[in-house]
Design goal:
19 helices, mainly alpha, single chain, 2 strands, two-stranded antiparallel sheet
Length: 493
């Protein structure tokens, strides 16, 4: 009986946990409940993914109102894959968060942190699983509002400014999205995504549809930090609490990319977006700019968090580049990079949380000789950095290999060369850490730090291990991405 309601439980459990945390107002209870919800969400996501693999897409009607009249939760190969990513990151981050939050936030704010964390988790899961365009907007707002609070909890005063910047740009993005949805409702009379896709095929007046496509593209482009709409991201990542940065970097932008993929390939249809319009060329141009410019900016940052923040803008460029290739290898590379980059950046920011805890800063100058006093943390950063570069036997290599194959299949050899060459820029900024941590002597006047607590180090190393494991065993990550890409490209053939 419960198995039939797993799609609803995926969202309801973290959504109900949040007000319960506020009522109890105990940090320890809130953490235990957040951890239980995160692990349960992972179990549900895996169960849904297995069911989709065995039996095909799942449709769940909320309140027994059949779609398109009622709200539908729909799980297919693509969003089952994203649900696993979100809940996997949350389940690893939850035990990490206790020590991290205790060191960065006042005790009376702990329950508030876990409340906002649960709401953000519910919002991201809801955006992914819902089959209703307006319901997606509701979950987008839940995730966004909780994210603004989470960023503002940072102990640096600049966290408030970062949260305000994100609030302004995030509100603009959400407004653009809902205007686009309103235009689609105007011409089709439905909000169900599957029904929208069917009815748009018969629409004769194409101008409102094109306007809707433009509004949704800009709106979600702001949310996913598509270059040059990324200005909110570096400050948000740099000044938020360490656990928040790791969670957002691994999940939030990935869900926004998922939404854009869903609208492009399922609702509007790839034939309209990429054959009748020059969206492929636009996406490729913006992606190339992101990969090159953001990587170069990252290489000159003096703070490791800001360096990885600009690196995230570049890595998002790889994902949108795969979308713009509009072929099976390219789209497979884009989708698998959602997963691989989520693990890689989650690992890096979690390890940097330990550095910030012990050194009080993530400045590149402060990590001189770090490998001598924090060898596990330093080696973990190096391994995750190798995945970021795309070295063979790491998860990042799988993504970039398929992107290169997709570029060659499209006949764009220059893109294949650019993907490889841009990885050399990543080598440059990863090497800056290696040089400081391994080849420089520590400050003689400063006390030698010790390793981060096991409660932070073990979850971070689980993520690092994932960067290596999914570079060797790809049946889930690459297999799931390939199945999703095949289904999405059905509208092109």
């Amino acid at each position: 009986m419960i198995g039939a309601h797993l799609p609803a439980l995926q969202v309801v459990l973290p959504l109900l946990a949040a007000p319960l945390m506020v009522l109890v107002r105990r940090g320890g209870f809130a953490w235990l409940l957040a951890m239980a919800v995160s692990w349960t969400s992972l179990a549900i996501a895996i169960a849904l993914a297995l069911r989709v693999h065995a039996f095909g897409a799942i449709s769940y009607a909320i309140g027994n109102w059949p779609p398109p009249w009622g709200i539908e939760y729909r799980v297919d190969a693509l969003n089952a894959f994203v649900l696993v990513l979100i809940s996997l990151v949350a389940s690893i981050l939850a035990p990490y968060a206790r020590a991290s939050v205790a060191s960065e936030l006042p005790r009376d704010q702990h329950y508030l942190f876990y409340t906002m964390y649960s709401l953000c988790l519910a919002g991201l899961l809801g955006m992914t699983i819902t089959g209703d365009a307006f319901n997606l907007f509701v979950f987008l707002e839940i995730a966004s509002l909780s994210t603004y609070v989470l960023i503002a909890l940072g102990r640096d005063r600049r966290a408030l400014l970062a949260a305000y910047q994100y609030l302004v740009l995030g509100t603009i993005g959400a407004t653009f999205y809902v205007i686009g949805v309103g235009l689609l409702y105007l011409v089709t009379g439905t909000l169900n995504l599957a029904d929208l896709a069917a009815r748009l095929r018969d629409v004769q007046e194409i101008r409102p549809v094109l306007a809707a496509l433009a509004f949704i593209t800009v709106g979600m482009g702001l949310k996913l930090a598509l270059f040059p709409l990324h200005f909110w991201l570096p400050n948000a990542y740099a000044f938020a609490p360490s656990a928040v940065t790791a969670f957002l970097a691994a999940t939030a932008t990935k869900v926004a990319i998922y939404v854009l993929i869903r609208f492009y390939f399922t609702v509007f249809g790839a034939s309209l977006v990429f054959e009748r319009l020059p969206m492929a060329e636009i996406l490729i141009a913006l992606s190339v700019a992101a990969v090159v410019i953001a990587s170069l900016v990252a290489a000159f940052q003096r703070d490791l968090k800001r360096m990885l923040a600009y690196s995230s803008v570049a890595q998002i460029g790889y994902i949108t580049l795969g979308m713009g290739l509009v072929n099976e290898p390219g789209l497979t590379g884009a989708i698998v990079h959602l997963f691989n980059h989520g693990l890689t950046k989650g690992a890096l920011f979690m390890l940097l949380g330990g550095v910030a805890l012990r050194l009080g800063s993530t400045s590149i100058d402060r990590v001189a000789g770090l490998a001598r006093s924090m060898p596990l943390t330093s080696f973990g950063i190096v391994l995750a950095g190798l995945s970021l570069i795309g070295i063979p036997a790491t998860a990042g290599f799988i993504s970039k290999w398929y992107l290169v194959v997709g570029a060659i299949e499209r006949g764009n050899w220059w893109l294949a060369i650019l993907i490889v060459a841009s990885s050399l820029i990543a080598v440059a900024y990863v090497w800056r850490f290696v040089e400081m941590a391994y080849l420089r002597a520590p400050d003689a006047d400063a006390a030698a730090p010790i390793e981060a607590p096991a409660a932070m180090l073990v979850p971070a190393w689980i993520m690092v291990a994932g960067c290596v494991y999914f570079g060797l065993e790809t049946s889930f990550s690459l297999g799931g991405a390939h199945a999703a890409a095949q289904a999405l490209l059905g509208s092109v053939r």
